[in-house]
Specification:
The complex is a heterodimer of chains A (265) and B (338). Chain A is α/β, with parallel strands linked by helices and 265 residues long. Chain A contains ten helices and twelve strands. With 338 residues, chain B is mostly helical. Chain B has a single domain, classed as Orthogonal Bundle (ABC transporter involved in vitamin B12 uptake, BtuC). In chain B, helix 3 packs parallel to helix 8, helix 12 packs across helix 13 and helix 13 packs across helix 14. The chains are: A alpha/beta (265), B mainly alpha (338).
Chain lengths: 265, 338
Amino acid sequence: MLELRHVSCRYDDHFVLKDINVRIEDGDLVGVIGPNGSGKTTLIRAVTRAIKPAEGEVLLKGKPLGMFSFKELAQQVAVVGRLYDLDVQMRVEDLVLLGRIPHRRGLRLMERRSDMDIARTAMDVTGILELKSRFVDSLSSGERQLAFIARALAQEPELLLLDEPTSHLDITHQARVLDMVRKLNRDKGLTVMVVLHDLNLASQYCDRLFLLSDGVLRKDGTPDEVLTYQAIEEVYRTTVVVMKNPVSSRPCVFLVPEDAIAGVE
Amino acid sequence: MQNRLFKWLFTLFVLIVILLAVSAFSLSLGPSGMHPGTIVRLMLGGNGTTTDHTILFDIRLPRILLGFAIGGSLSLAGVVLQAMFRNPLVEPYTLGISGGAALGVALGTILGLTGLLGVYSLPAFGFLGACCVIVFLSIGINRSVLNLQGLLLTGVMISFISSSAVLLIMSISRIEDLHGILFWIIGSLGETDWLPVKLALVAAVSGLAVAYLFCFDLNALSLGEEDALHLGVNVERTKRVLFLLASFLTGLSVSLAGAIGFVGLVVPHFVRMFAGTDHRILLASSFVSGAIFLIFCDAVAKSVAQPVELPVGVVTGLVGGVLFIYAMMRKANIVRGK
């Protein structure tokens, strides 16, 4: 589905991604983790053409990104950014319908029946159908995040990119958002790349993880392979203990406070 | 969905009715007055006295059509720029285009070149000045030296520079030149020549058509440039075309009728309150509302202190300013949930 070959990106003279080589297969659910400023968001921006790689190339379905028009790209790749600041009054339904813009043909001014149906399904899947006439700025952060995911689904993408979709959400909404993403991945075969700050969420929900640090891909593998205490302590410079979640048997990362270490010693 | 289309068409219908009513009202106003029946008969091609005919078709009608074109153009430019910059305080004149036009007129006047092209001299100089600013800013955009914020700040600075330069020129010019420059800057619709009126009409209507090609891009831009990119909008190209569109309409309007203020700032705000934020309806409603606003202000300007005619730019400023404050306070109340 997606391949990055020797991709390096920079803002001005400062490199934020260095020689990234990865392949994401159809139906993957990949988590991107790493400390602040490690290049996670830039990785997403390189795939959406918001930033042009200084070196290397990004291939979507074997074709370089530059061969797609912005519109063609948006028909296949949908993005949910971090929480948006909204200064326009827009209803949830209208927001979700924005997702149909890439599929608009010709000079047609109004949405087709099929556009309405797709938007409706997207809202249904994300569980916000009953909110459709509410204004987006009156929603809670969790509901708002779901509305933006619904908009992304209305684009009918094959690849979904999510940038920290669970930041600022309580665990109810964290679970709701990620359960839904995983369900879409399992049931509809949607390929997903999700940037996550929370190592435990990444471990529980993703099949594969990219660990970034200083713009370099440190590790690429299953949560078991990536989330070792050695790797985490090296990259995050923090003492941790890694154990298994007794139910899912995925790795679970525990932070150890400084004074607790002193107590043990 | 049919529901929404119906609502939009209804909004537009109401606005057009108001437009026709205001135009008819304005047509019947003037120093010599005119009976509504006479107007209807003349408009339908009936016979009338030569004087009535001349007053209606050579003085009053061009004036209203010019008001329609310029009111529409300015508020269309306002909507487009506000969406592009995601800033409600941007208006067509923020970018310094009117400043450039004013400077062009002032320079042309003081250099004694006004006789060069007859009645078209002042508009020509104004347009030339506006074009200089447009070209300057476009080069900035194309070289990617200016992002949107930079563009805005540069525009504001150009406005300041040119208004200082105009004041300088005015302070050293002769009294009759001074009057000419001042009246041009305040703005007036007293153009009785058909050619510029037709030009403005064609530009305004085609501007509206071009803007409609971008109505979805404008909707997508309401959540920011990067988000619009995610929705498949070619952001750079869209920004360039819309900037050129808005500044061309502004430049033309300003050079034909002077710097009539406030239309492009107030009208879009007002229209958003009843028409919503979807540009599919916002563009057309703003255009028509801008036309209504300007024709109405012009009617007030020519009738309120007869036989003296007030400059229309003063009336739009007064009426527009009061409306704007009212609108802001209402909006603040809505935000606070009152």
